[in-house]
Amino acid sequence: MFTTPAKPADPHRVRNTVLIAIGAAVIVATYLYLAIGQPTEVAESSTSQASLIAIAGYVIGAVLLAAGSIHRLPTATIAMIPVAIALNIVVGQIVAVLGLPVYVDSIGTVLVSALAGPAAGVVTGILTNVIWGLTLSPIALPFAVVQVVIGVLAGYAARMGMFRRFYLAPVAGAITGIVAAMISAPISAFIFGGATGGGTGAIVGAFQAMGQSLLGATTLQGLLSDPLDKAITFTIVVLILAALPARFLQRFPFVRQYRVFGKAPVTPRSSGA
User: Which residues of 220-234 are buried (b: 16+ CB within 10 A; e: fewer)?
Assistant: First the structure.
């Protein structure tokens, strides 16, 4: 009896998988450093030792993720990422100045994830908060890991067809917001004392006045603000996508392979999954 020899693993695929795994591990390690070490100087300066460690961790993680997934990304995606980063920062900064109890700083991340997959969304999100933290608001830097969560969940929501119907997008956004709230609460409590600016600080103060601990107050504030914020963000994105020409949307391999918008699939090509 003859057996067919096993097909050898593609060395490029193995290398890319390893790069993505290491990048993810570096990002998680950076988050744990911030959440457990609680370096409060991050809130004071983007050039402090803790800030530089956070910057290095998130940038290295983003570079490794990009190196492991860049072969899957079409030119249109690579060109779109800087625009998405600018969109995140500009809208997020405006909302922060207005003092609203939401953020709306991840529209670009969700948009890229829906069109090009989780990996592209993660790279967009990390670079958003690193650039934002270095230029305008050091507070943004430690929360880069939240953008990672948003990018991943938005990409998989797109794969599941959550952007095919208007009413499904805010549901996916609310679920993403719950996860984001649980991830961001320790950073908000232990590094910033619950005061991260905007209108969210008042909500934290209100929960503390009701007898909640600092971590409990920031968690409850996150569970109140984040699902609403991400539901709004996902709704804005689905409206943007609905306004784009179908021909443009179908230029993205991720959209075609996973029938993100319910179109008939074509022969699968590499995507940003």
Answer: bbbbbbbbbbbbbbb
- Residue 2 or residue 239, greater confidence: 239
Per-residue pLDDT at 165: 92
6 CB burial (10 A radius; 0-12, 13-18, 19+): exposed
- pLDDT (0 to 100) of residue 263: 57
Straight-line distance from the first to the last Cα atom of the chain, in angstroms, rounded to the nearest whole number: 39
Cα angle 219, 29, 38; round to 5: 50
Q: What is the DSSP letter of 8?
A: P
Task: Confirm if 145 and 105 have CB atoms less than 8 A apart.
Answer: no
For residue 108, give every residue at least 6 positions away whose Cβ sits within 8 Å of its Cβ, in sequence order, or none. Answer: 83, 84, 85, 86, 87, 88, 124, 128
Q: How far apart are CA 235 and CA 72, in angstroms?
A: 27
Phi, psi dihedral angles at 109 (to 5 degrees): -60, -50
Inter-helix orientation angle 118-135/75-98, to 10°: 50
Q: What is the mean pLDDT of the chain?
A: 87
C-alpha distance from residue 37 to each of 42, 50, 128, 247 (Å): 11, 9, 23, 49
Distance CA 247, CA 47 (A): 45
- In whole angstroms, what is the distance from residue 104 CA to residue 107 CA? 7
Question: How many Å apart are CA 92 and CA 249, to the nearest integer?
Answer: 25
Main-chain dihedrals φ then ψ at residue 150, nearest 5 degrees: -65, -45
Determine how many CB atoms are found less than 10 A away from the CB of residue 4: 5
